[in-house]
Design goal:
The protein is α/β, with parallel strands linked by helices. The chain contains nine helices and eight strands. The protein folds into two domains: 113 residues, JHP933, nucleotidyltransferase-like core domain (Nuclear Transport Factor 2, Chain: A); 91 residues, no CATH class. It has a five-stranded mixed sheet with strand order 2-3-6-5-4. A three-stranded mixed sheet has the order 1-7-8, with no helix packed on it. The radius of gyration is 17 Å and the shape is globular.
C-alpha cells in the first residue's frame, strides 16, 4: 500500500469535502475511481461526483442504511443488482460492482484507496467503448501528457484481456460525433484548454 497524502483536494466541492468521513466508511469494500480519483492526482479539473467500485457483490439496502446514518438521501437514481446511484448532500454517489480486478494501492490520507493514473487511464479507454463523454476525453488528454498510449494499452491488456482492442481504442480517440457534452468541464486555474486542442492531440495520438 502506498500512502499518498499530497492530493489536489481543491478539485472537490465543499459538499464533497464534507462527505469524506462518509466515503471512508466504505473503504474496506470499495475504492474510488473515475474522474474524481484522477483529478485528485492531476489537479486539472473540478470533480462532480464520487464513484466507488468493488469486485464483490454488495447489498444496496445495507449501503443506503449506512449512508442515512450520516446524511439524508435526497434522491435514488439507480438501485439494481451491482449498482446504486444516489444524491446525498448535493453530491451524486455511485457504487458499482466492476467485473475486473483493479489494483488500487494508493491510500489517500487514510480515507480510501485509489488506482494510480495509468490504471485509471486504462479504465477510461475501456469505458470509451460503452459511452462517449467529453470529460473522459479531457481526462485522457491530460493523462497522455504523462503516459503514452502504448503504456496505457499494456495495462489495459492486463486488466481487461480480450475485452480491449487497440484498433477500436484508436478509432474512439479519433471520433467525436457522438460525444456527450452535457457535463461541463470546469478547469482549475491555469489548466484550461480548448476543445479543439484536446481533439487535435487525441487525433494525433490515435494515428501515431
Amino acid at each position: 500500500m502506498i500512502i499518498w497524502p499530497l492530493m489536489y483536494t481543491e478539485v472537490l466541492t465543499k459538499n464533497q469535502q464534507d462527505l469524506l468521513p462518509l466515503i471512508s466508511k466504505f473503504s474496506h469494500d470499495f475504492y474510488l475511481v473515475g474522474g474524481t480519483a484522477l483529478a485528485l492526482q492531476l489537479g486539472h479539473r473540478r470533480s462532480i461526483d464520487f464513484d466507488l467500485f468493488s469486485d464483490r457483490e454488495f447489498a444496496n439496502d445495507s449501503l443506503l442504511k449506512n449512508v442515512r446514518r450520516f446524511y439524508p438521501v435526497d434522491k435514488v437514481y439507480v438501485k439494481s443488482r451491482g449498482q446504486m446511484t444516489i444524491d446525498v448532500h448535493g453530491v451524486r454517489m455511485t457504487w458499482y460492482q466492476f467485473p475486473f480486478i483493479v489494483p488500487h494501492q494508493i491510500n489517500w490520507e487514510e480515507i480510501i484507496t485509489v488506482p494510480d493514473v495509468p490504471t485509471i487511464a486504462a479504465m477510461k479507454i475501456y469505458a470509451l467503448g460503452q459511452r462517449a463523454k467529453w470529460k473522459d476525453y479531457v481526462d485522457l488528454y491530460f493523462i497522455f501528457k504523462q503516459y503514452s498510449l502504448a503504456a496505457v494499452m499494456k495495462i489495459a491488456g492486463k486488466l481487461f484481456g480480450i475485452e480491449i482492442n487497440e484498433r477500436m481504442v484508436r478509432e474512439q480517440l479519433n471520433y467525436f460525433a457522438d460525444v456527450d457534452y452535457s457535463q461541463i468541464v470546469e478547469y482549475l486555474p491555469g489548466m484550461s484548454v480548448s476543445d479543439e486542442t484536446v481533439k487535435a492531440c487525441l487525433k494525433q495520438i490515435a494515428v501515431s
